[in-house]
Each structure stands twice: as C-alpha cells, then as structure tokens.
Amino acid sequence: MARSRSSSTTWRYINPAYYLKRPKRLALLFIVFVFATFFFWDRQTLVRDHQEEISKLKEEATHLRNLLEELKNGGGMSGEKMKYSGEGGRAVKNMDSPDNILDAQRREKVKDAMLHAWNSYEKYAWGHDELQPQTKNGVDSFGGLGATLIDSLDTLYIMGLDEQFQRAREWVANSLDFNKNYDASVFETTIRVVGGLLSTYDLSGDKLFLDKAQDIADRLLPAWNTESGIPYNIINLEHGNPHNPGWTGGDSILADSGTEQLEFIALSQRTGDQKYQQKVENVILEMNKTFPVDGLLPIYINPHTGTTSYSTITFGAMGDSFYEYLLKVWIQGNKTAAVSHYRKWETFNERSLSLMDELACFAPGMLALGSSGYSPDEAQKFLSLAEEPVGLAITFTSQHLQNWQGRTIFLMTAKI
C-alpha cells in the first residue's frame, strides 16, 4: 500500500495537469527550465568557442612550423607564403626590399653571436649549468640540470643550428638525470627547465622533451602541498622534501610562488593531466582572497595561512615576475572569462612607486603587451604609462646611481 502511494505521488509531479492547477509551481518550473537552458547553452558556447580557438592556433602553429622549416633549409618563400602574418597582422614586406635585406644581415649577426657563445659552452662547460667566461670553467649553479643547454634548445632549433641541436638532444636523452640529492629552486627550475623543455617540444614535436618536462614537474609538485596551496620555494629533487629559505622567516616569496603558472598550465594542456594546472591555479585563487585594491602584494606570504606579512611592496626583486605572469596567463587563456581572475594586473597601473631596481625594467614591456585588444583610448593609456619608466631610464642622472653590495644599479622614480 505504501509503495502504491509513493508511486502515485511520483506520477503526480510529472503530470502536466498538476502544474496547470498550481500557477506558482508552474512559474517556478519554467524559471528553472529557462536557467538550466541558458546554463547549458552558455557552456556549449564556451566549449565551441574554445575548440574553434584551439583549431585556429593549431593551424597557425602548423603554418609557422612549415615556414620555419623552409627558412632552416635555406629555401626562399613564395610571395603567397610571405603574405602570412598571423591573425590581425600586417602584410609582410617584399623579401628583396632594403629593410628585409638589412633584417637578414642582422639575423646573421645574431646567429653568429649565438654560435660564439654556444661553441664556448660546448668546449668548456658541456652539460653544466653555466660557463664562467673568464676562468673557462663550467659551474652547476642550478644543481647540474644543464640549465644553459636546456634554455638554449629552442633557440638552436629556431636558428636552424641542427648539428648543435642534435648534440644537445642526445645529452638530454642520455645524460639529463633529475634524480639528484639537490635542493632546487622551484621557480628557477620551472622557468628554465620545464619551460625550456616544453618550448622545444612545441617546436620539434619530439616527445622526449615532453616526457622530461613531466618528470621534473612531478618532482616539483610536492612543493604545493601546503595548507593554503601557496608553495614552498625550495624542494629536494630526490627526496621531495620542500621548505623555504631560512632568511625569509619561513615565508614564501611572491615571485617564486606566482611564476609557475604559464609552464604548468601548458604542461597540463599537452599531457591531458590537470594536476599541474590545478596546483598553480589554486595559488592565484588563494591570493585573490586578500588581493588589495591597488593590485600590489607584499613580497612575503605565509604558505600555511595564505596571508601576506608586513613586508616590501615592489616591482623589483622577489615581486617582479608575479605581475608579469598575471598578464601572460591571461593572454595564454585567450583573455576569456575562465582566466578573468588574472586581470588583476590591470589594477596596479595607477600606483606610484618611488623606487625601482633594474629587475623592474620588464614593466614597460608588460604594459605595452597588455595594451593589445583594448579600445584605442584604453590602449593609449597603457602605452603612455609604459613610456614613462622608459623615458626615465634613458634620462637618468648621476644621482640615480648607487653602489649596492659591490654592483652598480640604476634607481629611478616612476609612476606606474
């Protein structure tokens, strides 16, 4: 009897006559239906737009790769191919024009400079992180991960230095070992090693580089295992023990904690494993909880609570690349609603800073890059802001020079 009553009640809720006699419930049902329809339609539109954007990017990447191969092989390019300039770009000039001849000469000079540096690295510091030019010794300042070699792979490939590239590839395949009892900087290892391997994979399509990038990224991941998700800045590559430098008082550094997003998001996109993106995205989401109105954060953050401590606010050392990555991840995400929380970079353009060190010189380029996609008036506002520090940098006077710990740095007053 109970089952019959329950069945009857269920049928009543799906019977149209039930709602026709109850206008309020019919209206509520209609509202729910409309919202569900809009939600589904919006999701489908976002997915479709994303797929179309990915398809366009793949087509452009394929086209550019083909052009690069032609240039590497020493062949000329037809007039039709030379017209290609990417989405919204301008027509490319005739290859025989004086400007392009001069550009070709400049390219050769740059290539010669690269070969000079690379040949010295091969001869004196092969496989080491850096070459000391005066002593001609190789040093392992990044744990012996071949930082210079990996950082140079994409340049070798783009310049068509195939023999040099193949020798470097063999070193990566046979000698690059991340299982080292070494306390690595999460930030430095990400931008140099993960980034270098990923860009080379994108250019060459060689899965060796993607596998190596995933290997080192997996060794860095435990650094994000904190209560807040703000990462520790140092981790032992062999044992996976993360910690922060003693001189920070246990805090994490802003730039070191917020400058892994580009590489880890790209790694998730290429491997299909979302764990890398989730770790680095959580950092920005956590910071957004206490993000100040002026868009500038102190350089020290507690990795357990996610709160900032009373410390320096700067575009320079320990703060710089955090702001740079906010803009670049927004661009990486095609400036869609999904990455809108990275638009915080826009909020600090009215802040006055009385002092900037040399590491802050990225700011004009960041503002100029960020101006793309805005209305002419808005774009000009960003460009005008970008010009101010540049002008000051060019017109510095003697009182802007200070000697700090044995090295000369340029200090400038600028409104950002």
Automatic annotation (TrEMBL):
InterPro entries, per the entry: 6hp_glycosidase-like_sf, Glyco_hydro_47, Glycosyl_Hydrolase_47, Seven-hairpin_glycosidases
Signal sequence, renumbered to the chain: none
Organism listed in the record: Datura stramonium
Annotated TM spans: 26-41
Pathway assignment: Protein modification; protein glycosylation
Enzyme class: hydrolase
Family of this protein: Belongs to the glycosyl hydrolase 47 family.
Key words of the record: Coiled coil, Disulfide bond, Glycosidase, Hydrolase, Membrane, Transmembrane, Transmembrane helix
Coiled-coil segments: 47-74
EC number of the protein: 3.2.1.-
Keyword Disulfide bond (UniProt): yes
This protein's name: alpha-1,2-Mannosidase
Gene3D superfamilies linked to this entry: 1.50.10.10
Cofactor or coenzyme needed: Ca(2+)
